[in-house]
Amino acid sequence: MVDFKINILLIKIMKEAKFYKKLNDNNVQCELCNHFCTIKDNQTGFCRVRKNKKGKLISLVYGYPVALNADPIEKKPLFHFMPASYTYSLGTLGCNFRCANCQNWDISQAKNIENKIDNLSFYDPESIVEDAIYNECASISYTYTEPTIFTEYALDIMKLAHSRGLKNVWVSNGFMSKKCLEEILHYLDAINIDLKSMDDDFYQKNCAARLKPVLENLIRIKKEQIHLEITTLIIPTLSDSIDMLSKIADFIVNELGTDIPWHISKFSPEISWKLKDLPATGDDIIYEAYEIGKEAGLKYIYVGNLPGDQRENTYCPKCGELCIRRFGYHIERLDNNGFCPKCDADLDIID
Fold first, then answer.
1. Interatomic CA distance for residues 246 and 203, integer angstroms
2. pLDDT above 90 covers what percent of the chain?
3. Whole-angstrom Cα distance, residue 276 to residue 280?
4. Which pLDDT value is given to residue 306?
């Protein structure tokens, strides 16, 4: 187990948010994500963690993480970014999505957030970075819930992390505004984005969001050469259409590139927020999605929630040699510093 050693400040910090503009009558418009909420005085936006106080937008969660852990980087999941390293993970209450399938719904969909924060301890950015170093982590991951909602806090940590030689990782739904994305790109080293479906109707009904901004942000991130991996959760009856999965694979290949790793995950109803009456994802559709990705031309496709399955391993896309063996979070690197040990092909790995 990891021993945490953090300096805790027992004071309530009220941080003014970035990414907003003032309107008439003490109203404000948040510009952090693609909801672009108009927020009245003493009200919060869709994410419930940004509050208008007399015409000033406040980040309620700045400095108040609800979860802190040292995790294998593969847990994010990132398989081609610093494999077998550890990352220091943090997240706050709240989210800008309402995913019915959410497995972290107890924190992402938490109610009475302002009251709950009163019971949390304050961790300044310096303490987060120091603890990541203390726990021998190579990076810091902004995860568990959507990091966009605590961008101000994340940015302050990210800047310090880079100054201390640490990398920055986001695990995101990809719904941040263009203005927010431009700001974080300067300090972002890797990101895993959930591409939940290619159906906008799914995004609206299941997530209370939209598809187009996610696709636009994926293209922008790839253009900026940020290390990108994509995860798709296959939910029976909602996101298990063969046609839709083919559209995801084709989008990745045609718009992002064949080198983008695609993680295909199984849905578990017992840990979901609202979809407990649906069946669990069968292995057959996971394997079919894997073949869809291969046929589309993707070099790296990984199955999730199937420990020990050979499709969790990394094979050379040129000669088929086993280069990284995975069993759960036990990682055996057989590659040669990111290259195939047999034919020396580039495995698109960042160390």
1. 17
2. 94
3. 9
4. 87
Q: Which is nearest to 128 in space by CA: 256, 36, 219, 6? A: 6
pLDDT-flagged residues of the chain (< 50): 1-10
CB 251 within 8 Å of CB 196: no
For 119, 235, 253, 267, the CA distances from 249, given in Å and listed in that order, are 44, 17, 6, 19
Indicate the burial class of 7 (C-beta count within 10 angstroms; 0-12, 13-18, 19 or more).
Answer: exposed
Q: Nearest-CA neighbor of 88 among 150, 123, 125, 138?
A: 138
The predicted pLDDT at position 13 comes to: 67
Contacts of 254 (CB under 8 A, 6+ apart): none
User: Taken in order 90, 93, 99, 101, is the CA torsion positive or negative?
Assistant: positive
In this predicted structure, what is the pLDDT of residue 160? 98
pLDDT tens-digit map of 286-332: 999 999 999 999 999 999 888 889 999 999 999 999 999 999 899 99
pLDDT of residue 14: 77
Q: What share of the chain is helix, strand, coil (3-state, %, to 5)?
A: 30, 25, 45
pLDDT for 305: 84
d(Cα 273, Cα 213) in Å, to the nearest integer?
24
Q: For residue 146, report the phi and psi dihedrals to the nearest 5 degrees.
A: -75, 115
Residue corresponding to tokens 């939940």: 196
Query: Which residue matches tokens 């990809």?
Result: 174
Structural domains present in the chain? 15-59 (no CATH), 67-318 (3.20.20.70), 319-351 (no CATH)
Query: Do 141 and 171 touch, CB atoms closer than 8 A?
Result: yes
The two structure tokens encoding residue 205: 């009904």
209, 233 Cβ separation under 8 angstroms: no
Mean pLDDT of the chain: 95
209 DSSP 8-state letter: S
